[in-house]
Amino acid sequence: MNFLELANSRYSTKNYDSSKKISKDKIEDLKKIIRLSPSSINSQPWRFVFVEDEAKKSELASVSLFNEEKVRDSGLLVVFYVADDLKVFEEQVKKNLPEMAVAYYENYVKTLPESAIKTWLQSQVYLSLGFFLSAAISMGLDSTPMEGIIHDEYSKIVPVEGFRPLFAVALGYRKEDDFNQPMLRPKSRLRAEEVVISI
């Protein structure tokens, strides 16, 4: 499939077939791919927690609001964390980025109010989400991005020092009768003329 065909076939899966497991090779490839996600100045203000353990996944499912069934039945849950401790993040920037990137952060990001800095950090993690969802469908995996989680509870169950959970993605294989798949429920998008502007 070319990318347009993949984009047409990808959708937010509502019902997973819990009997179908994701191969270890695919999970390892996903780990390698997510590490390569793009971010402004290569800032990488994230951590990605891959939850394969069924007991831990079930625990997280119980604090996933209306997404509980998706999390429980999926083959893999990936929790995306964003930098929350700015001092820890700035140390990472200074340690790993070239001088020009550090200067950009110091002059254009660090000078912003803390709330604006944290919004900028979150934006970088959302870039990784799009990258990750595209990778998943290219590997034949169905996925569901989920903001509907209880963030504080996720933090307690899977703490990552200096970071907080932002959203999660369930992955696996759809049930054959999943009502949300495009062949049963055509995609609904605004017309191209409304959203794509050519100059």
Question: What can be said about this structure in brief?
Answer:
The chain is an alpha+beta fold and 199 residues long.
Helical fraction: 40-55%
CATH architectural group: 3-Layer(aba) Sandwich
Instruction: Write the CATH homologous superfamily.
Output: NADH Oxidase
Largest sheet features: 4 strands, antiparallel
Note the main attributes of this structure.
199 residues; alpha+beta; 4-stranded antiparallel beta sheet; 15% strand
Structure description:
By secondary structure, this protein is of the alpha+beta class. It has one domain (about 5-195): NADH Oxidase, CATH 3.40.109. It is about 45% helix and about 15% strand. The chain has a four-stranded antiparallel beta sheet with strand order 1-2-4-3, with helices on both faces. It is globular. The mean pLDDT is about 95.
Question: What secondary-structure arrangement, pairings included, does this model have?
Answer:
Elements: H1 3-9, H2 24-35, E1 46-51, H3 54-61, H4 68-73, E2 76-83, H5 86-96, H6 99-109, H7 114-138, E3 142-146, H8 151-157, E4 163-172, H9 192-195
Antiparallel strand pairs: 1-2, 2-4, 3-4
